[in-house]
Amino acid sequence: MSKQESIGMLSILYLDKGDGKLEEFYAKREQEIAINTTEVEGMVASACFLASSEDKNLIKSMFPSYNDRKIENLRERGVFNIDNALITSAYPLLGKNIPIEWAIGLSDIAKAVVSLIETKESYVNERRLNAFISSEQYRNVFPSLEGEAISYLTGKIIESLFELEILKKQKRRIKLDRKKAFELISLDEVRLSSYLMFPKLDEWDRKKSFHFIHLIKKIKGAERDEIDVFILRAALISGFSYFKAEELFTFLLLVERDGIISSPVDEKTEGPVLISSDYSVSFLGSASPLIALIAEPVRIDRMKIYQISKESILNAFSLSYTDEEVIRILESVSDYKLSKMLSSRISIWYEEYTRISLERALVLKTDEKCANIIKNIPQMRNYILEELSDGIFIMDSLAEDEWREILKDASFEMMSETKGPEFNYSRYESESPFIELQTFKEINAERRIPYDEKIRRRLLSEIREKEPMLRKIREMLVLSGVIFDSTQLERPLHIETADAFNYMEKHRLIERAYKDKSLVLVVENHSGKIAAGNVEMVESFEEGDHMVLGHKMLSISRLYRVALLPSSLL
Fold first, then answer.
1. Beta strand extents in 199-254 (DSSP E only)
2. Is the pLDDT at 196 greater than 90, yes or no?
3. What is the spatial order of strands in the sheet that 384-389 belongs to?
């Protein structure tokens, strides 16, 4: 095929003109297209597709030999217009597409660790736990991994569980927050890997880590001496830098076999799940979080074997599953009918479990007049577990800080400290989100606003926005007096935003702010720092990558997110 014919063929792959024939054409000529597209075109197209941008600086950093003229030649050939995931994935940006058929993954290790701690936590302390993960008994659970490797990885997982506050120390004992643990092992492989490898990240670095790990999992068939190049490409595309290359191997995201490095293929559950008369659960593929919840791992290999026991079923009961729900879970994962012996045994265990009911609470005592007021505060209804008699309430102890604030706002400001023994449970059983957002920095603390300081502090504490930039914007609106009532916090913010993965949209919003001085620009950099102001100068898209915001020169490509706001709001 001539060069001209190749170019003609590739032109059909450029942005779809609406004829709907793109996928059909590709399906018929996949190999032909790959052969007749140069490696340079394929790699650059792949990079731009994965990064969702045509960023000169990105291309230069990934391919140092490409000068401006070479990049311009690629643009003229239409390389940046290729808009098809299938064609871009055919090129060696992240390896030679040599997959490793099977290798044990981080997800199965994490589920096994959580399951084992759940079933043994009644007598586990840190010393015993370290001794257990170094024991031959524990290593035998993972026959395909070397003993030292699995012990070291398990230690890293446990460190992360402590940092995520899924594991907590209670005097000499270690306590597992079962709810958070179950939420963790229910995450997909990318998100699970992110939280275990990088337990302390703010929200936007967390999103970048998802993108980074997603790209690492695309590495297939790298030689040992070139793997660092592929890892660097994933880091540059995602904008993520908080990693150590060796830990990608420690956490099993990359595996070397016969001199070739690839990321293992994620396995879905496949084949029958067999629950035997000895209460063992056997299956191929990845472990369901529900199996890890109600059974203890015995052997984690290509064939997984878990064991149902009284202690393991207690985990499910502790998470408010009933015997009927546990039986229904087992029936849903099994390809065979559950034995009546096992069903009746689970029901007997549940009957034992429900004989004694325990509830941690606080007793609130007051006079009849105050009791009537407290009962009629709408927000308090969620925290009163039971009214024993006139003026005596059983309160939710885990939410004490919350209902104390409600009572203070209702003029009950002179409340005594809670008497009685202190519990050291912190809040491991509270209904908090899985990983709470790290908030930062007070802004403009001395600014005066036209309403009561107490109301302002209360409104700031009620902001529930999880995205750092939107949270910061709400704080600005509260400090400016634009938001002066709790109901306003519930309204969605209709604000134009653009993030790092859409460079052209980001540039468009900056141009708008430059031309329209009634708008201010709010910007966030890669480390989460936020600034707001008028755009005083911006280089055109063709000229370069800089702007001036409030007398400060900023690189547009380094801004993680931008948003437009009317200047009157600030």
1. 220-223
2. yes
3. 361-365, 392-396, 384-389
